């Protein structure tokens, strides 16, 4: 785990992940439930959650919809070969587009020339195409090639699993 | 989704109150009651429209992760895909329409474990994995705007931007 999690929180954080990675039970006071599991007071449990959120281990605490089941069946992984020197400016610009859910820089490899990944979602392939055009226009001449890899099937999707961690 | 479920997804997919009895606070925000909110979430969860409620963890802070692709010959695809899903370190596994047709995320306590699993996969499948670790995040999964009820099949455009932080 990251050094920015204080050593005293680390064992607790691991247990917190184990208790919550599959989701909290739908009860009136889920934090009281979690506090009991962790053998903490409710106040200490809330403070722990706040610390873990502040240091970034927890991205957000939220109701996470299953977009696929809600009809957003098509996720398009758009990949772009963008001039390296333009990425510092263009990466954040693509990431800021409202329809992009994930946007990352990744390394090029051998026969894989694409260094910018942006995930877009829609109810159909046609739904996604205009979004792709928007990204293409934004990248302009800095982009040398692009592709879109549409998911044809989800085989496994689980939350974070730390395994032997 | 009914109106309450839709309001819950719209308001709380990016974050929910971190306080005792959060569903009471959420009910106040959307002008409903705690019982109605819990009922709506329970139904949504039962129908598969809700992945979970709770903390969303940042993989890179909790250990190491990478995006991996394999170019699997069509005849072997089912078998290799099934094999990959069995690895506990694999937490997303998608078929995509591309020469690199199998895409998955590997997570582990550290990069050494990731390298080890990549070697195991190469030995197991006889295929060379494309290892694409994140180098920079320009946008991380904050969800995306949901438009109306997609199951009803309205051909309307996607929701206006604005509710993503």
Structure in words:
The complex is a heterodimer of chains A (165) and B (165). Chain A has 2 domains: 10-54; 74-150, Lrp/AsnC effector binding domain/regulation of amino acid metabolism (RAM) domain (Alpha-Beta Plaits, 2-Layer Sandwich). In chain A, helix 2 packs across helix 3. Chain A contains 5 helices and 5 strands, in the order H-H-H-E-E-H-E-E-H-E. The relative contact order of chain A is 0.15. Chain A is an alpha+beta fold and 165 residues long. Mean pLDDT of chain A is 87; it is low at 160-165. Helices cover 36% and strands 27% of the residues of chain A. Chain B has a 4-stranded antiparallel β-sheet with strand order 3-4-2-5. Chain B is 37% helix and 22% strand. Chain B folds into 2 domains: 3-55; 59-132, Alpha-Beta Plaits (2-Layer Sandwich). Classes of the chains: A alpha+beta (165), B alpha+beta (165). Chains A and B meet through helix 1, helix 2, helix 3, strand 1 and helix 4 of A and helix 1, helix 2, helix 3, strand 1 and helix 4 of B. Chain B: Residues 10-48 form the Siroheme decarboxylase NirL-like HTH domain. Chain B: This is siroheme decarboxylase. Chain B: It catalyses: siroheme + 2 H(+) = 12,18-didecarboxysiroheme + 2 CO2.
N- to C-terminal distance of chain A: 9 Å
Class of the largest domain in chain B in CATH?
Alpha Beta
Separate helix tally of chain A: 5
Structural class of chain B: alpha+beta
Helix content of chain A: 25-40%
Which percent band covers the strand fraction of chain A?
25-35%
Tertiary shape of chain A: elongated
Shape of chain B: elongated
Rg of chain B, nearest Å: 20 Å
Radius of gyration from the alpha-carbon trace of chain A, in angstroms: 20 Å
**For the record, what CATH class of the largest domain in chain A applies?**
Alpha Beta
What is the correct CATH architecture of the largest domain in chain A? 2-Layer Sandwich
Helix content of chain B: 25-40%
Number of domains of chain B: 2
| Strand residues, percent of chain B | 15-25%
> What's the average pLDDT of chain A?
87
Low-confidence stretches of chain A: 160-165
Poorly predicted sequence stretches spanning 5 or more consecutive residues of chain B = 148-165
Mean pLDDT value of chain B: 84
Give me the CATH fold name of the largest domain in chain B.
Alpha-Beta Plaits
Domain Siroheme decarboxylase NirL-like HTH (chain A): 14-59
Organism (chain A): Pseudomonas mangrovi
Domain Siroheme decarboxylase AsnC-like ligand binding (chain A): 69-156
Protein name (chain A): Nitrite reductase
């Amino acid at each position: 785990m990251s050094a920015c999690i204080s050593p005293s929180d680390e064992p607790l954080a691991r247990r917190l992940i184990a208790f919550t990675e599959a989701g909290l039970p739908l009860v009136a006071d889920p934090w009281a439930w979690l506090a009991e599991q962790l053998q903490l007071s409710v106040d200490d449990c809330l403070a722990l959650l706040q610390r873990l959120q502040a240091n970034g281990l927890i991205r957000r605490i939220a109701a996470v919809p299953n977009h696929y089941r809600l009809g957003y069946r098509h996720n398009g992984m758009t990949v772009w070969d963008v001039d390296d020197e333009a990425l510092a400016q263009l990466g954040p610009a693509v990431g800021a587009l409202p329809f992009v859910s994930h946007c990352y820089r990744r390394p090029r490899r051998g026969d894989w020339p694409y260094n910018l990944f942006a995930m877009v979602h829609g109810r159909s392939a046609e739904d996604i195409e205009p979004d792709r055009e928007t990204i293409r226009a934004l990248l302009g001449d800095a982009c040398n090639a692009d592709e879109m890899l549409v998911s044809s099937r989800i085989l496994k999707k689980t939350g974070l699993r730390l395994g032997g961690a | 989704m009914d109106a309450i479920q839709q309001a819950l997804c719209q308001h709380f997919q990016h974050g929910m109150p971190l306080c005792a009895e959060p569903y009471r606070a959420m009910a106040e925000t959307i002008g409903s009651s705690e019982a109605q909110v819990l009922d709506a979430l329970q139904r949504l969860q039962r129908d598969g429209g809700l992945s979970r409620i709770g903390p969303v963890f940042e993989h890179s802070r909790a250990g190491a992760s990478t995006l991996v692709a394999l170019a699997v010959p069509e005849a072997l695809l089912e078998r290799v895909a099934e094999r990959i899903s069995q690895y506990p370190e694999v937490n997303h596994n998608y078929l995509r329409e591309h020469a690199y047709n199998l895409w998955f995320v590997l997570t582990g306590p550290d990069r050494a474990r990731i390298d080890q699993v990549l070697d195991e996969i190469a030995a197991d499948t006889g295929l060379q994995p494309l290892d694409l670790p994140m180098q920079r995040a320009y946008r991380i999964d904050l969800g995306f705007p949901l438009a109306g009820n997609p199951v009803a099949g309205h051909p309307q455009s996607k929701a206006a931007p604005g509710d993503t932080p």
